[in-house]
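Question: Send over one sample?
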Amino acid sequence: MIVEYAWIIPLLPAIAFILIILFGKDRKEGGGYIAVSLIGTSMILSLLTIAEVVLTGKGYESTGINWLGIKGFQFGLLVDQLSSVMLFVVSVIGFVIVVYSLGYMKGDHDVQRYYAEMSLFIASMLALVISSNLVLFFIAWELVGLSSYLLIGFWYRKPSAASAAKKAFLVTRVGDIMLLAGIIILYINLGTANIRELFVLAPHANVGMLTLATLLIFGGAAGKSAQFPLHVWLPDAMEGPTTVSALIHAATMVTAGIFLVARVYPLFTSESLMVVAWIGGITALMAAAMAVVMTDIKRVIAYSTISHLGFMTVALGVGGYFAGIFHLFNHSFFKALLFLCAGAVIHATHTQDIRDMGGLWKKMPITGTAFFIGAWSLSGFPPWSGFWSKDAILDKVYAYNPVLFAIIAGAVILSAVYIFRLFIIVFMGKEGKATKHAHEVSRVMTTPLIALSIGALFSGFLVFFGFKSFLMKSLPENFAGALEKVSVTSAGAHEYVTYLSIFLVALGIVAVWAVYSLKIVEARSIRHTFSPIHTILINKFYIDHMYLFISKKVIWDMGIIVNGIDEYFVDGTVNGIGKLSIAFGEKLRKLQTGVVQDYAAWVLFGTGIILIIFKVKGGMI
């Protein structure tokens, strides 16, 4: 069975990481071909493994090794239907991005380090998705975080890049602490960290304990998947190379959080899922609103990612297990496509400011067409892939809560607005000052765009080929059956939601076309009319300001107080006792003169004192 050798899948990129560090410096491309060949081989093995799972209809679990001989710490493989979907996303999208990098990173003086870190990133994520134990999962999770830190700060000589890397590392650490706490609670109460064993024990466990543990686990997911209020690191992560942004947003870092929730989904209670749903809804709407006002091409797409991660999160929260993972699958194609198109645009124009762009479709027809396909798919207009998963999410949310549905409907409209605003400004209209000398990028960069465009066009049609029934097999049978009965809409309501979804997308596109292409209303006048709202959005709801205030004023001032207590009270007490002892010793030392007569005098003095006491007490001492 090929699936038994799935451990080789993450091993190959890990070997690439080692080989590039050792020998990449001697190669002209910095080890790029080593990365492409070994990651490509890993992808082929992943596809063969997936094919076996699809054909047999069964997953595979190995007991592996028992780490430190501790019960419940068996480190093995879990390759089921959910793992298969993630293996496809990580290996295929990762391989395409690394191939694209051969053109994009050409000439960079640190290219060896780039390919080494990219290989480590992909290896860590592949290990994560096939882990059978939450402890092994956490180890891989931390390696994913380390890799993202290294790659976000790849151009570390830029202060903004170094700052963005530290910000990402610190914010996601908050989530990581919560995740670790959740794992510890599960282990203490259930006696194991093996995922399948937890599924068996969960129905008989204390509901309050499961609610607390899963909320903490979701906290870890919220950190990695940039959910409110831990979303602030992801827009700044654009300081790294655009290929890194594509990998983080489409296949690795941020999808890890969504995968985590899906991986332990049967452990969640109705109370913890409610929190998941509302956090996802708030994130989807807030991020979509911020994307509308951004002028950096990468930041627009970054906020788009946060919003669509919110879509996936809300889907999981309302019982839409399939809808959430299906959207993750489709999103990986069109988001990688949009980021790589943005990379091509930046490569050609040497700027990220969309106000300096315009008319690029004529000069970059392949990139422009690819971006157009990605934009339609992201907006969720039929028949592009994003429509099918977005429609499934809306269907579930509609049956769950009308207020939450209204929030998600608002995010749907804004999705169409921000992505077509970006498309029209960058690729349509008059030529911008940064686009005069722009030209289409090399074939090594356009070929991945074409491949991803095909995925963005057709991945959604998997829904007609048993994708749902395949994915649901990754859940325990009884749980999957019960889940199918949650948040179910009638046939009439489903039809209504579908038509409403199409209408909302069309409304957003028409509004953008009227403002940015036909110029019926000037964008400047809209900004002026809604100036207070624009100010709030451009300042990202002042959440970053709040964190800075807390860190600089509250935490810093508390640190000064604590330092004062430590320095003057704790150290003062200890040092005071020490100084007193030294002073007493100095005085006492003067009695030790070394003169026999002095010692005899003290003996007589002491004897006299004893006799006096004896006399006073009447002869009794």
In short: The radius of gyration is 31 Å. The mean pLDDT is 90. The chain is about 75% helix and 0% strand. The first helix runs from residue 8 to 23.
